[in-house]
Q: What sequence folds into this?
């Protein structure tokens, strides 16, 4: 990699800007993972993790999405941050404190079992509640932008609760390194 | 992109010299009576040298049929073949097939290339002409002339303005739900002449017509900044409405067309604002920690109905145009949203969620007289025909890939699918066209 940056963060930024280097780093990390395959895999505790979850380069978008968990879920018509969501947001806040150069956008979403305008406002409320929680955990509010997509961007498509509960969400999107 | 040449319609009451015995009109529909028995009407092919005469009569008959107030008689039952629409028909031939009203007409090409369409409406039992009119237009506007003739027939028989010569702006949806493409589109109220108004990847929602200009207001996520816009239909020119510090949404025009009323979202809080399009001044009308949205003016502009969850669930509230006297009007089981004040002023249409179902209903502005017109898995977003007799809304059935548009009359008995080329939502009916 030929660079000798002292700051881990600036190295991450460099990596993120160079796809070839990222690929190399991932390969190394996966190899590392394979050597430890007999160790207990605790990725399941971390929300969205799966096999090889620990493989993402620390500080990368993939690290955030896979190891930290980029989204939380809400009850119907609710903007309350549930206990499981609090754990995810606590991890997000820690991660964002460790990598302070990321600006973020919190996207608020609603399920389709509501009318359009109300859901736009409900998604905004969920995004605002999420922002507030992160801010209370030390993420500067001026790093956090919010947007609501209402019910317009579902991730799960079916006509029952199994999908609706996945669509009632707030997703923390890393808005790019550097502010 | 939206070059719309409005046809000049010369409406001349055809002084087609024919006089009959003075009227005791039998053909009359009282649409205030509730569930009306549709009036049997024979719509004959307009005389023409080509297929246009039959096409025009088909559009007229379809309009009348969809209104639920008329029952066009099957052409195969016709006895008399109308050879000269200027001559009095043989009323006996029409009475015997129970056609209480009869439409005859002719379409010809003027020397300057324009179409001339003339029609007569006959009361077969009274044995007299009820009305006769003629219109001139460019040939490509033949469907519009047919709608205007259907309006004239509707108005003569019901005593109320028709709504067939109108358009609907809506959101045309395509692609999978997780990557849905949305474009604004406009069509005739019967689903024909669909034209796309936007062409971008941005989410566009809730288009609504200006009451008096060729203009719509809508919401777009352009640049990931969800805001209310104006779109000029004739030029395609767009502009952002106001410079608000947050998402603006749920726009509608005031009845005089001078203001846009909408919601402004700030953090978790949505309040209702107006912006005067001339002075550019903004006025805040609600100030709560709740979701206040979906505002709609009464036709006289003095009051506004909106939805709010300030009491827990979404309910309908009415306030003065200055925000005074905010009063809850919906108290039924469930939650209420997307209220729209009827152009007649007598009713407010809404979406109601109750027991896992979505319904379209109406109530009086004081909240009394609630009636549900249709119920199902998902019905949403009513819009009024300009005569206040018919609603259009969108419906998505369980398991369906996307929403479709439906119309329903105030009796709730006459529900019609409006066929569109793609999935469709957020319909908004135009005012009567000039």
A:
């Amino acid at each position: 990699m030929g660079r000798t940056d002292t700051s881990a963060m600036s190295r991450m930024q460099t990596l993120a800007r160079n796809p070839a280097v990222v690929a190399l780093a991932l390969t190394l990390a996966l190899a590392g993972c394979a050597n430890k395959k007999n160790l207990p895999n605790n990725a399941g505790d971390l929300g969205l993790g799966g096999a090889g979850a620990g493989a993402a380069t620390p500080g990368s978008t993939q690290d955030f999405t896979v190891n930290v968990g980029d989204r939380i879920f809400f009850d119907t018509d609710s903007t309350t941050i549930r206990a499981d969501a609090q754990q995810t947001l606590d991890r997000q806040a820690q991660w964002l404190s460790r990598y302070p150069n990321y600006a973020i956008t919190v996207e608020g979403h609603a399920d389709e079992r509501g009318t359009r305008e109300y859901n736009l406002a409900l998604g905004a409320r969920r995004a605002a509640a999420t922002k507030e929680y992160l801010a209370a955990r030390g993420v500067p509010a001026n790093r956090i932008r919010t947007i609501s997509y209402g019910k317009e961007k579902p991730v799960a498509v079916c006509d029952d609760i199994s999908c609706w509960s996945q669509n009632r969400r707030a997703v923390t999107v890393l808005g790019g390194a550097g502010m | 992109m939206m070059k719309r040449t409005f046809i000049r319609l010369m409406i001349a009451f055809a002084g087609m010299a024919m006089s009959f015995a003075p009227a005791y009109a039998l053909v009359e529909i009282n649409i205030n009576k509730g569930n009306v028995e549709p009036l049997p009407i024979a719509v004959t092919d307009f005389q023409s040298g080509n297929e246009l005469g039959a096409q025009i009569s088909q559009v007229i008959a379809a309009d009348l049929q969809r209104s639920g107030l008329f029952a066009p008689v099957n052409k195969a039952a016709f006895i008399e073949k109308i050879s000269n629409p200027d001559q009095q028909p043989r009323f006996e031939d029409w009475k015997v097939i129970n056609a209480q009203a009869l439409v005859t007409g002719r379409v010809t090409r003027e020397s300057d290339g324009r179409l001339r369409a003339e029609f007569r409406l006959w009361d077969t039992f009274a044995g007299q002409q009820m009305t006769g009119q003629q219109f001139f237009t460019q040939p490509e506007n033949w469907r519009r002339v047919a709608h205007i003739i259907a309006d004239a027939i509707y108005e003569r028989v019901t005593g109320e303005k028709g709504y067939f010569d109108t358009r609907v702006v809506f959101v045309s949806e395509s692609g999978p739900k997780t990557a849905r493409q949305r474009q604004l589109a406009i069509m005739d109220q019967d689903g024909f002449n669909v034209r796309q108004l936007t062409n971008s990847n941005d989410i566009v929602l809730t288009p609504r017509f200006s009451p008096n200009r060729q203009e719509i207001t809508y919401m777009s996520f352009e640049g990931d900044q969800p805001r209310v816009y104006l779109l000029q239909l004739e030029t395609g020119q767009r502009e952002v409405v106001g410079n608000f510090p947050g998402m603006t949404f749920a726009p509608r025009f005031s009845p005089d067309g001078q203001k846009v009323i909408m919601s402004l979202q700030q953090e978790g809080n949505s309040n209702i604002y107006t912006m005067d399009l001339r002075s550019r001044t903004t006025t805040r009308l609600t100030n709560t920690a709740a979701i206040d949205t979906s505002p709609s003016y009464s036709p006289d502009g003095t009051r506004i109905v909106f939805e709010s969850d300030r009491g827990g669930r979404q309910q309908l509230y009415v306030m003065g145009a200055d925000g005074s006297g905010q009063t809850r009007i919906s108290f039924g089981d469930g939650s209420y949203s997307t209220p729209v004040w009827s152009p007649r002023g007598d009713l407010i249409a809404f979406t109601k969620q109750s027991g896992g179902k979505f319904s379209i209903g109406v109530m009086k502005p004081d909240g009394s007289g609630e009636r549900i017109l249709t119920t199902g898995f998902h019905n949403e977003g009513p819009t009024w025909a300009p005569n206040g007799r018919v609603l259009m809304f969108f419906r998505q059935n369980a398991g369906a890939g996307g929403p479709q548009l439906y119309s329903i009359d105030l009796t709730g008995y006459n529900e019609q699918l409006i066929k569109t080329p793609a999935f469709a939502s957020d319909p908004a009916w135009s005012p009567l066209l000039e």
